[in-house]
Amino acid sequence: MTRTTIAASLSPDGSRLTFASDGSTAQVTLARRKP
Are 28 and 16 in contact (CB under 8 A)? Predict the structure, then answer.
């Protein structure tokens, strides 16, 4: 069985979400919703 560890971190301004999984990273830019 292979165990995968995924870490997610949110940028301080809340507009960028970074995923790190087994040495590879993916960045997701979130769309900011106006209140």
Answer: yes
Cβ neighbour number for residue 16 with a 10 Å cutoff: 13
Q: Which residue has the tokens 């590879």?
A: 24
Is pTM, for the whole model, over 0.70?
no
- What distance in Å separates the CA atoms of residue 35 and residue 20, rounded to the nearest whole number? 30
pLDDT tens by residue, 1-35? 577 777 888 888 877 888 887 767 777 776 666 66
Nearest to 27 by CA among 9, 18, 6: 18
